[in-house]
Structures are given as C-alpha cells and as structure tokens.
TrEMBL record:
The keyword DNA-binding applies. InterPro entries: NA-bd_OB-fold, Primosome_PriB/ssb, ssDNA-bd. The keyword Transit peptide applies. PANTHER family: SINGLE-STRANDED DNA-BINDING PROTEIN, SINGLE-STRANDED DNA-BINDING PROTEIN, MITOCHONDRIAL. GO terms for molecular function: single-stranded DNA binding. Keywords: DNA replication, DNA-binding, Mitochondrion, Mitochondrion nucleoid, Transit peptide. NCBIfam families: ssb. CDD domains: SSB_OBF. This is Single-stranded DNA binding protein 1. It comes from Neogobius melanostomus. It is found in: Mitochondrion matrix, Mitochondrion nucleoid. Its main location: mitochondrion. One of its GO terms (biological process) is mitochondrial DNA replication. GO terms for cellular component: mitochondrial nucleoid.
Amino acid sequence: MFRKASSQIFRQVVRYSSTDPSLILERSINRVQLLGRVGQDPVMRQVEGRNPVTIFSLATNEMWRSGEGEMSQSQGSGDVSQKTTWHRVSVFKPGLRDVAYQYVKKGSRILVEGKLDYGEYVDKNQVRRQATTIIADNIIFSATTIEIGLEFALLCLARGSLK
C-alpha cells in the first residue's frame, strides 16, 4: 500500500515539475448553464451496441433595446429586439436520461447544466456536418413544471392509479 501511494505521489511530482509537455496536466473547465423552454418533446435513441440517449431542443432568448445609448428595460423609449438561440441537449446519464424522457415536455421551462461537445456526423445525403451539443449533467425543473407534476400525482392518487 505504501509503495502504491508513493508511486502515485512520485508521478504527480514528475508531472508538475517536468518541462515535457506530454507529462504536464492542466485543469480546465467546460461548463454550461442554460435556462430556457423546451422546443420539442424528448426522443430516446439507441444506436446498436451503445447506451441510449435522450435528446431534446432548448430555446434561450436574448432581449435588448435599440436606440440612443444604453437604456434599461424599464424605460419606455427604443425598440425591443429579441434573438432566440436553439440548443441541442443530449442526456446520457442513466437515471437522468429516463427522468428527462418521462418528464421534460414541450414548453417546459428548465435549467440544464452540463458541458459543450463538438462532433461530426454524416447526414443522409452523405454530407459531413458539424454539430454542437450540450451534454446534460443535471436538469432542474421550474416551479410550474413541478407543480403540474404534483397535481398529476395527486390526481392519480385520488383515482387510485398511483400506488
């Protein structure tokens, strides 16, 4: 046990004190938080030999006022402009994947936490495409979504269909 611990410490010292780029490990951050509305009901896909994945789209909005100078949104002058950005969200974590598939619905307001992933695929016309995906680590439902779920559960309990 002492030998294993000392070898791990030795490797860390070599990594951090070495000038060889292949031995130096740096910490980095790839984190995303998106608060928006779901654009479509989730679909679950499974490619042969791989774990299933739940996929849905999420819309985020950016609003600003045009006009002279910077104005707060409470002021009445200037036109309000809005831009909607669509994000593709993929959920691979087994428990979260199933919850997302069952409870995320079109129009729901949710917070997605995860990381950015860039990849390539070949479409049905054999054209190589690039895709940006949010790999979800956590999904937080807004209060209204939770309230709807609780109301549904209470309704099921009242009918005796939920035990």
